[in-house]
Amino acid sequence: MASRKAKKKAGSMRAKRVTSNVFAMFTSEQIQEFKEAFTWIDQNHDGFLQPDDLKGVFSELNKDPGSDGIDKMMADAPGPINFTCFLTIMGRKLKGVDTEEVMLDAFKILDPDETGKVAVSTIKELLVSGGEKFSDDELKGAFEGAPVEDGNLDYIKYCKIVKRGED
Predict the structure, then answer these.
(1) Regarding the domain with residue range 23-95, which homologous superfamily does it belong to in the CATH classification?
(2) Considering only CA atoms, which of 73, 103, 88, 100 is closest in space to residue 26?
């Protein structure tokens, strides 16, 4: 009898599960996509993202995050990275990102003829001479995977990729 009371008391001392409003930040489709990404990144399938998981992902992608790149990524988390924490981090990262409409409007300023394209050289010039000057590596990263043809960025496709992902 005493053991039943002890079990009941121990059960009441457990941390109560707190539901997070982070799930309200995303559509169910986005949450599913994040879940798929989380599952892929979680290489050892223990439900937590750890440095070794990230190393495995970078290895699969043939990318080098640099000597302290993974440490910097892990520092974004307040503790162990389970799926809810992962969503919280993604929400923080995406919170400051402009809407697709705002992005399109910004590009349209550079496209008075409304062709849907802007010369990459024009964008690069703005990025290296603006307030936060881009480094060569940042410029390279900005156009990696971007729909560029004949030296022109298809900014309509680019905005869709940035906001919705690859088709």
Answers:
(1) EF-hand (1.10.238.10)
(2) 88
